[in-house]
Amino acid sequence: MDKSIIKYDENDYIGCNINNVPGVKLQPNISKKDESVSIHRMPKIIQPLHKDYGLWIFSFSRNSQSQPRNVIQPRYFEFYNISHLTGGNGWFWTKSKGQIEKMLPGQCVMLSPGYVHFYGGDTAPYIEDTVCFSGGIADYLLKNGIISPGIKEMGKARRLLPIIELAIDPSPVSQLHACIELQKLLVEIYMENRNTKSREMYPHVKKLLDLLKDTPQKWWTVEEMAEYCNLSQAQFRKVFKNYAGMPPKLYLDKLKLQQASEMLSNSDINISEIAKNFGYIDPFHFSRRFKEIKGISPEKYRENIRKQKQ
After folding, report:
1. Contact 297, 287 (CB under 8 A)
2. Do residues 153 and 193 lie in contact, with contact meaning Cβ atoms separated by under 8 Å?
3. Is the same domain home to 216 and 295?
4. Exposure b/e, 4-17, CB count within 10 A at least 16 = b
5. Which letter does DSSP use for residue 36 in this model?
């Protein structure tokens, strides 16, 4: 082994000549450097409002710039971070992938606590809007895949600016509003990235979802849905779950009961007739399934809605 290469761990090499690093894909203008992993600490003092709500925006910046770099300096944050590349260009490296990805304006880097990475300017400065945050809500979003480390498409509109403007104002109302808007943005980014990829690769899945909504009386089989999308059943199940977040039969079941809930709320149609409208031949089966999904019987659900309207 070339003595200029220092083994970082069993899967990751640090050295000054990238051509000597086996199995690591790097852009030709980026080299690795021997550095210990630096840790960016999180402030210890949190306001009661943020603690109670479960989300805390404690740092942010607008139009921050980092100059072009050709050295990786591994680091991780004790907190969550979203960095929106608004100008220039950049590159992003992660220890887990062991390779560098180019970045263009309109993309963002999303990071979770403990994720070893580095990013910076490529052939031009890396110009960013960024927000650092923490809390139980962020942990929950990470656990359920809404937050995931890596590059995401975010668009060129500077969507972090309204959140930063709110976070600057120390009043409790503005602080709470900033947290709510950040939470909404994180979900939007997740949905946009997930659905864009699925729509491009499997355009018939979106058409199927619209068709399911328009044919509430029909009980579609997985075979019929897969055939409509021109996919094998195994492939369809995987694609559908990635797109809708749940298996196809559970989605269909919940969709029918959501639509039935609206009918219970806005009409006087008897429950047996509502059951038939959504393909349930046996009204007792409908009532039992409604309670399993909603946690309340159709009769009680309608009664509660009517009380709220009085």
Report:
1. yes
2. yes
3. yes
4. ebeebeeebbbbee
5. P
Torsion of CA 43, 40, 137, 110, to 10 degrees: 150
CA dihedral 218, 220, 226, 227 (to 10 degrees): -50
The H or E element that residue 100 is part of is strand 99-103
Q: Could you tell me the two tokens for 101?
A: 């990805």
Asked whether residue 159 falls in the same domain as residue 246, the answer is no
Q: Which residue has the higher pLDDT, 252 or 70?
A: 252
State the total domains in the chain. Answer: 2
Based on the fold, state whether residues 184 and 207 are members of the same structural domain: no
The helix or strand, by DSSP H or E, that contains position 109, with its residue range, turns out to be strand 107-111
Asked whether residue 2 carries a pLDDT value surpassing 90, the answer given is: no
Provide φ and ψ at 109, rounded to 5°.
-105, 130
The verdict on residue 18 lying in a domain is no
Residues 6+ apart with CB under 8 A from 292: none
Q: Which strand (E) or helix (H) includes residue 300?
A: helix 298-309
Q: What is the mean pLDDT of residues 173-202?
A: 86
- Reading the block at residue 308, the tokens are 């709220």
Q: Which of 179, 195, 211 is the last residue of a domain?
A: 195
pLDDT of residue 217: 92
| Cut 0.70: pTM above it | no
Domain with 181 in it: 39-195
pLDDT confidence of residue 250? 93
Q: Which two tokens stand for residue 103?
A: 């970045």
One-letter identity of residue 277? N
Q: Return all residues near 143 (Cβ < 8 A) that are at least 6 apart.
A: none
The 10s digit of each residue's pLDDT in 236-260 is 999 898 888 889 999 999 999 999 9
Q: To which residue do tokens 């668009």 refer?
A: 155
C-alpha 91/C-alpha 100 separation (Å) is 6
CATH number at residue 271: 1.10.10.60
